[in-house]
Amino acid sequence: MHRRHRFAALNMSGSRVRQMFVFLLLGTAIIFIFTGFFAMMRAKQNSRSSDIGRFTSGLTAETMVEVMSQEIPYLGNIVQIPQKEGMVSRLTFELATSIDPRDPRTFLGRELPGFALFDTEIVVAGQGVDYTDIPVESAPPPDLEEKLAKDTEASKSADSQESEEDSGEKKPAAGAGGAKTKRVFIYHTHATESYLPELSGEKSPNRAYDNKKNITLVGKRLGEELEKMGIGSQVHTKPFQAEWNRLYQASRETVVAAMNQNNDLKYLIDVHRDSKRRDKTTHYIHGKPYATIAFVVGTANDNWEENEKFSRQLHKKLEELYPGLSKGVFRKSRAQGNGEYNQSLSPRSILVEIGGVDNTFEEAYRTAEALARAIAEIHFEATPVDAKPHNP
Predict the structure, then answer these.
(1) Is this model's pTM higher than 0.70 or not?
(2) Which architecture does CATH list for 142-162+173-382?
(3) At residue 183, does pLDDT exceed 90?
């Protein structure tokens, strides 16, 4: 580099400069290849959740803002960042451990079973509801999960054989009949969830699963009640064939297929059973026991605010019609659960927990009827063009 008349002349033909440009081009190419590969893999999974989100979910808000302010100086001016020293070491520590030194819960959450539940946000709390009432999803033990999968496969093979021998007449979908226009699609991601009193000889709460006597019967009753009230429903009752941690992806395919076949579907309802015991999942109204209901909203999708608004409406309507039946609305991010729950597919998509392991079908059916009434009242208030039947 030579200086002439206070100007600096850069020799672009130097070997070091050429090496720098080569490395820059190679680095840019690698970044584009990695980004394209990452986007392709995520598209194949048909999910809107992001691995980058999972990667950064362990960072505190302050650290995230501080990192972003390195590229966006404006953030550093409008947001108070408590400490800028040691940013690199703090970033590395939080990414590696997901621990916030200022929050003791992050030290204990991974060591104490169930402690992570306290990260779930109670958006609207029902009567007497606190953090001990938060709905819990739990998988069956490995041996039971394997047995259920084998039984499902055997049942599927038998059904296929029967359909081949059938005359070709197509059977109506569960819940069909009544209203011609199908507005509601009901399905069960965890279709084998059941209730202990309905399983002969079974006492262990972590084994309340069955391929026949399960939550799908409750979803079917919900569909039947909606039909009586003039809202067409379609109910999917078959269990999904996938490992437990991939069931939401499996159920998503079914929901997408249903939506492609019917543009009139407006409400998507995923019916589950909570893992809590009877004292947390039973409510008496006029002396009759009901299985309590809870609404879970995932925030890892663009529709979460609309879905939460709809869940709030249902909770409020249930409070008017059946005081104390709804435990409330619970918000879960990707860090506390699935976070997506297929709720990106519709702004009227909800996940409902009906009862717990100790409830009965009779109690769950009462709640299904109550939920159907709440949905119907909200639907006909918002969509008066749909004809509400007389004396449903």
Answers:
(1) no
(2) 3-Layer(aba) Sandwich (3.40)
(3) yes
